[in-house]
Automatic annotation (TrEMBL):
Its main location: other. Pfam families: FliM, FliMN_C. The lineage of its organism: Bacteria, Bacillati, Bacillota, Bacilli, Bacillales. The keyword Cytoplasm does not apply. InterPro entries: CheC-like_sf, Flag_FliM, FliN-like_C, SpoA-like_sf. The keyword Transmembrane does not apply. Belongs to the FliM family. This is Flagellar motor switch protein FliM. It comes from the Bacteria. Residues 254-324 form the Flagellar motor switch protein FliN-like C-terminal domain. PANTHER family: FLAGELLAR MOTOR SWITCH PROTEIN FLIM (PTHR30034), YOP PROTEINS TRANSLOCATION PROTEIN Q (PTHR30034:SF6). Keywords: Bacterial flagellum, Cell membrane, Cell projection, Chemotaxis, Cilium, Flagellar rotation, Flagellum, Membrane. Transmembrane segments: none annotated.
């Protein structure tokens, strides 16, 4: 109790209990001296700190946004994917929590060791399949009867979706996800020890009128080499990384070598569509530029200088007279 910070409402309630006689100072002292025991289950070893779990949550919130855009385009339907929860549990508990017949993508993430699982609820899986084959997105929970054609369609869809996982992870590790197999029965999965700790990211998924879950299971052995990268300190260092003088010089060199279009306008005018359609060879279009006035020189699409036309070595050229007001500003 000494290490806890009480809110004002708790303090008021405590003082009220003492003043009314519901609790005495002796009772408070006795309770304070009672040894506090916290239950710890060694089968559910917590291998990741709250800080690291928050980092994994941020990564997969970004992944969920990328998946929403990807599946919306591929399925041509309303799709909404959000992170529902991020938990660390034994692998055996994860296997027991998913349906007996579901759709499970097993994929590698080199250079990291081990495999990652992506389990798609049958309702969601068959809604996706129905949309890909031209249907309305109706769900039929017969995932145990996937044909070879259906398996190939779903494999191609999720292989393309792995680019989004690569992008979501790029701040902590450069991975190259590759699909190893597509499984429908979780009992056949023998990736790791049943008591091995895994992180399970549950994504709440809506496709049209169908709802379900997509679960991503990441074993501790996969994340172990990059656990330091999941700390807030690492993220702050990454976000505030300064550019070295060598990088600055390289950027300056590349910017100086970049090519820009330079255009000297002889003048402009406006005509009607009727006049434009009636134009023939020999017609003259008067411009709004007087011959004794300087021209405007544009760099890119921005007017920068006033110039006068002429020739240089038998080639048409312009001579800069002065910069335009505001033309030398960085834009």
């Amino acid at each position: 109790m000494a290490g806890d910070i009480m809110s004002q409402s708790e303090i008021d309630a405590l003082l009220s209990a003492i003043s009314t006689g519901e609790m005495s100072a002796a009772d408070m002292k006795k309770e304070d001296e009672t040894r506090k025991v916290k239950v710890y289950d060694f089968k559910r070893a917590l291998r990741f700190s709250k800080d690291q779990i928050r980092s994994l949550t941020r990564i997969h919130e970004n992944f969920a946004r990328l998946l929403t855009t990807f599946f919306s385009a591929q399925l041509r339907s309303y799709v909404q994917i959000t992170v529902a929860s991020v938990d660390q549990i034994p692998f055996e508990e994860f296997v027991r929590s998913i349906p007996n017949m579901t759709l499970i993508n097993v994929f590698e993430v080199p250079p990291l060791d081990g495999n990652i699982l992506m389990e798609i609820n049958p309702n969601i899986a068959y809604s996706m399949l129905d949309r890909l084959m031209g249907g309305t997105g109706a769900s039929h929970s017969n995932v145990d009867n996937l044909t070879e054609i259906e398996t190939k369609i779903m494999t191609n869809l999720f292989e393309r979706s792995f680019d989004n996982l690569r992008e979501a992870w790029e701040n902590i590790a450069e991975i190259d996800p590759m699909l190893v197999e597509l499984e429908v029965n979780p009992q056949f999965l023998q990736m790791i020890s049943p008591n091995e700790t895994v992180v399970v990211i549950s994504l709440n998924t809506i496709i049209g009128e169908t709802t379900g879950m997509i679960n991503i299971c990441i074993p501790h052995v996969v994340l172990e080499p990059i656990v330091p990268n999941l700390s807030v300190r690492y993220w702050m260092q990454t976000n505030t990384k300064e550019i070295s003088p060598e990088q600055t010089k390289m950027l300056e060199t590349r910017v100086k070598q970049a090519k820009l279009p330079v255009i000297a306008e002889l003048g402009t005018t406006d005509i009607t569509i009727e006049d434009f359609l009636g134009m023939t060879i020999g017609d003259v279009i008067p411009l709004n530029q007087k011959i004794d006035h300087p021209l405007t020189l544009k760099v890119g699409d921005l007017p920068k200088f006033t110039v006068q036309p002429g020739k240089l070595n038998k080639k048409m050229a312009v001579q800069i007279i002065e910069p335009l007001k505001g033309g030398d500003e960085d834009e």
